[in-house]
Design a protein that fits this description.
The structure holds 2 protein chains of 2 kinds.
Chain A: E1 4-7, E2 10-14, E3 19-25, E4 29-37, E5 43-49, E6 52-56, E7 59-64, E8 69-74, E9 83-91, E10 98-99, E11 103-108
Parallel strand pairs in A: 2-11
Antiparallel strand pairs in A: 1-3, 3-8, 4-5, 4-9, 6-7, 7-8, 9-10, 9-11
Chain B: E1 5-7, E2 10-13, E3 19-24, E4 31-37, E5 44-50, E6 53-56, E7 65-68, E8 75-79, E9 88-95, E10 109-110, E11 114-118
Parallel strand pairs in B: 2-11
Antiparallel strand pairs in B: 1-3, 3-8, 4-5, 4-9, 5-6, 7-8, 9-10, 9-11
Classes of the chains: A mainly beta, B mainly beta.
């Protein structure tokens, strides 16, 4: 069992839909990162969370430390949101990030 | 520069050759990370610098891989006697502080990566 698991692996939705990507982890962490990677492109850091909720534009990230669960939401999705979304955990005692497998999101116009 | 800059963006080389990949982090960022991402897989940690020193190089796959950061800013990842299995995108990231416990965690900023192809 991976220490960081994401679901779904693949998600296809219509433009305008509300998107939720989930991340569960089984280890103690100091923070959780949400990152975005476009095909053939670099990785962009979206959020770093250690508690609560953060919002940036149409993106919202939440984390529940007790349940070891985080979600990334996209409101009013747009085709340009199509990318792979990755969660990565920074552990309490280990600065190496543990990466989820990623969620490939496709938003159709 | 405004972001993390990596050069070259693409490198094609022949098996057995020596390769250097450069990372120029965001100015003032003390922590620098190298990752390797093979096709269809998540990034694999290689090495973490805090300042000039390699705080953890346990992710380097073997002694053909070496990285330096002599002045605490630009870092160079060096690969000797390249093999076809070294083909991957090499990603560099920096953060203001390290993610090491005690320093607090830092938001990561990634470069666009250097795509290495070994023929």
């Amino acid at each position: 069992k991976n220490e960081v698991e994401q679901s779904p692996q693949n998600l296809t939705a219509q433009e305008g839909e509300f998107i939720t990507i989930n991340c569960s982890y089984s280890v103690g962490i100091s923070a959780l990162h949400w990152l975005q990677q476009h095909p053939g492109g670099g990785i962009v850091s979206l959020f770093m969370l250690s508690s609560g909720k953060k919002k940036h534009g149409r993106l919202i990230a939440t984390i529940n430390i007790q349940e070891k669960h985080s979600s990334l939401h996209i409101t009013a999705s747009h085709p340009r949101d199509s990318a792979v979304y990755i969660c990565a955990a920074a552990m309490d005692s280990n600065y190496q990030l543990i990466w989820g497998a990623g969620t490939k999101l496709i938003i159709k116009p | 520069g405004a972001g993390v800059s990596q050069t070259p963006s693409n490198k094609v080389t022949e098996k057995g050759k020596y390769v250097e990949l450069r990372c120029d982090p965001i100015s003032g960022h003390t922590a620098l990370y190298w990752y390797r991402q093979s096709l269809g897989q998540g990034p694999e940690f290689l090495i973490y610098f805090q300042g000039t020193g390699a705080a953890d190089d346990s992710g380097l796959p073997n002694d053909r891989f070496f990285a330096v950061r002599p002045e605490g800013s630009v870092s160079t990842l060096k690969i000797q006697r390249t093999e076809r299995g070294d083909s991957a995108v090499y990603l560099c990231a920096s953060s203001l502080n390290g993610v090491l416990a005690g320093f607090g965690t830092g938001e990561l900023f990634f470069g666009e990566g250097s795509r290495l192809t070994v023929l």
